[in-house]
Amino acid sequence: MNKRKLKILRVVQSTYPEVIGGVGIHVHEMSRRQSEMGHDVTILTTDNGDRSLPRTEHRDGYTLVRHKEVARPIDNSIYPGVIKSLYDMENNFDIIHAHSHLYFSTNLSALISNFTNSNLVITNHGFYSQTASTGIQKFYNKTLGKATLNSADRIFCYTPRAKKILREHNIRSPIEIISNGINCEVFTPKDDQDDTQQILFVGRLKNGKRPDALIRGFGEIADEYPNYQLKIVGNGPMLPDLKTLCNEINIKEKVTFTGELSYEEMPDVYRQSDLLVLPTKTEAAIPRVVMEAWACKTPAIMPNIQEIDAEIFKKGGILCDGTPSGICDSVGQMIEDDQLRSTLGDTGRQVVREKYSWAETVEKTSETYYEVVNE
Fold first, then answer.
1. Nearest to 281 by CA among 260, 312, 306
2. What is the pLDDT of residues 109-120, one digit of tens each?
3. How far apart (Å, rounded) are the C-alpha atoms in residues 65 and 44?
4. What is the pTM of this model?
5. Architecture in CATH for domain 198-355
6. Which residues lie below 8 Å from residue 72, measured CB to CB, with a gap of 6+?
């Protein structure tokens, strides 16, 4: 017997294409694909300060309801209008799916679910903030963050290591490990030989992503490999300082800042690159941009951060210590060894095809909804 279609209320700070980033793309793809399955999906989100956006919009099979952003401390959008929407709408939906315990809107979703006994699931997109100070993070995760996660009927995380971190921080809610999804029909390898010699960074230009460490590391080997260029894809508060840094270490002519690029433009960017370098401080698991690069057979370099699955990552990349010198050494190793790059690229795509299917991600997520609704 066919299961009834669900009414899903998704709550998130931002979604693609208004904001380009891993969480936003995840939310968009999940919502679009669940709508194709016949589910009724509504997203409560913010206008991120852009008052030109419509309050309500129907697109890609789902409905968007935007609220006015009134402040953005530590890159966290505050939009009080979501409170009334959650109260007014929760009775009309089978389940509330909030994204990241670090967001104001997820805190509110947890609070309201406690009062109304709504079915709540939360996706853990990373236990640690890339923006807040260490002291603030520790206090938050022991208090409001912990209370938010323990209000969930289910928590989704990407890897066993991420689950272990949650348990170590006394998160008691049931946890399901469901991998992120990548579209391997969109992110594909290049068909012919490309002579472009390019190192790539993709991400928000903020302290947590540490693009400055890559620029300094690249500066150490720029003269040794004069044909190599560095492409920085993304935008953010560090952009002026990063351009100044390039001038100071005399690599201005070798570094291109593209700003944000669309999801549709990214496959070609990965194909044109010899390797991706992401010196980030924290991630939920293997970052989406790494998996997108792997799908295009582009290997990657990252620090061995706490939440990453190192054994999986080493199939398609090299782990380093995250310092400029460590990045320099790893980049040099990749540049010097064509066979290593080729082998890591081939294996990376194989890993993505086998482990990170969107169809499986959406199916497992939806099945968990039914378990929660029927409990």
1. 306
2. 999 999 898 999
3. 5
4. 0.84
5. 3-Layer(aba) Sandwich (3.40)
6. 49, 78
